[in-house]
Each structure stands twice: as structure tokens, then as C-alpha cells.
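hiii, so i know i said id send this last week but things got crazy w the move. better late than never?? heres the sequnce for the chain we talked about at the cafe, plus the structure i predicted for it. fair warning i was half asleep when i ran it
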Amino acid sequence: MSKEGFRNLEVWHDAKDLAVEIYKITMEGKLSMDFSLRDQMRRAAVSIPSNIAEGDERYTNKESIRFLYIAKGSLAELQTQLVIAYEIGYIDVKQLSFLENNCTLVGKKLGALIKAREKFYRQKE
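okay and structure toks below
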């Protein structure tokens, strides 16, 4: 529920950029041929900024926080899929490291936003 809208949230931009990177890596190599894993990774990646946006557009902090937690869950899902993609040889260690660092950054910013919204929500009770 930011006054400026979700597009002004730094975490939304970072999550959207992460989704774009996931689309790029899933268009090449062995990963592009594993339709199941590729599609699951894309869905999880797109779900992160989508849920941040949806949560920010909700009318209450309680609803907003719920969607931010859903985004955090999708982030964990994506991180798991990245490890699997690495362990089966679909992505290399450089790609894994780059994407894990981006996931960590998004996770920290999501956590901070959740904490701030929860604090605000508690003050309103």
C-alpha cells in the first residue's frame, strides 16, 4: 500500500529484473529443452514481482503482507529450482551464483518491507 504505487518499490524492480534474467537463461542450453523445469522456474520468477504488485494494491496492510509472504514463498521455490538446475548441469556455477545473489537481495528487501508493514499494521490495531 505505497502511496506512489508498486512501480516505485525498489524490491518490485529487483524482482522484475530477476524474472527477466530467469527468462533469458531458460531460453538457452539444456534448460530450454526441459519444458517442465523451465516453465516452473518462469512461473515462480514471475510470481515474485506479481505478488509484490498485487499486495501493494490491496486495501489493507494485512492483505498486503499476505501477498508479500506469497512472493517470499515463490522466491524460495525459485531458489530451490536454481539449485536443481545447477546440480543436473543445466546452469553453470557462475549463473547460479549471479542468480542466487539476486535472490538474496530480493529476499532481504522483501523481508524489510514485510517487517515495516507489520510494524505499521501493529500500530494501527
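btw DSSP finds four helices and no strands in the chain. thought thatd interest u
miss u guys!!
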